[in-house]
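hey so i finaly got around to running the thing on Alpha/beta hydrolase from Streptomyces carpinensis. pasting the sequence first so u can double check i didnt mess up the copy paste, my clipboard has been acting weird all day
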Amino acid sequence: MTKNSTSMATSKWTGMVQVDDTALAVTDTGGPGIPVVYLNGQFATQGYWRRVVAELGTGWRHITYDERARGRKSRRSADYSFQAAVRDVDAVLGARGVDRALLVGWSYGAVVAAHWAGRNPERALGAVLVDGAFPYDWLDEAMEQRIRKLFRRLGWFMPLLRPTGLAPRMTAEQQADSNIELGRLSRESELGPVLDGITVPVRYVVASGTSFGSRGDEQERIRAGLDAVTARNANIHVSAKVAGNHGAILRKEFRAVAGAVREVAALGPR
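ok and heres what it spat out for the 3d tokens, dont ask me to read them lol
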């Protein structure tokens, strides 16, 4: 570890990390503990992780950030693609002098974490995937139209929330495109091989019930796609199936998420 990275590890820091044509708002608690990088839901913010961070406590180095055009400070970009989101993990780690980290991702962030861990086995201490990264073919033409209709309906309301950081500074079309891209990436033929190739410890925390925009038992059928994954890859297990639904899981089930982090840390390489 260089002198500069040692300074980064011991000092608390909040600021902007430049990447491509944008900048991301990052918070790094510093300290000598295992670096844990938290990857947000698709349009969520780093504040969602505060209960998990508090539950784990000061023995860990917590790094949170807001994705492009999310939160109150992260800036707009010409690129809101999934691949950009994966590259941003590297940008944040590089800016903070972190060589190896444990990733925790919720929803969209779980898919980002799975891809990053699969591509970087020598840098990933492991991953916790919170109610996301389920390989299932849920996107068809009818669903795509449903997604576009939903975001068009929300289009008038979102600008009112942007100053608070509760809504992304993205157009309704950009948000719909991002959600549709996630659906394509979540297909068994796309996500299944990514999960099968992971060689570091991975633990899932699985919610119950619905998520935003889902109907009936739609979400539970999507979660069932995980069974084949755990049967094929011995590195991947379900740490907990919790009562909280998708939207409330970080608020109500933070202890289960923290428990999964501890479990992965105990298994990961040193």
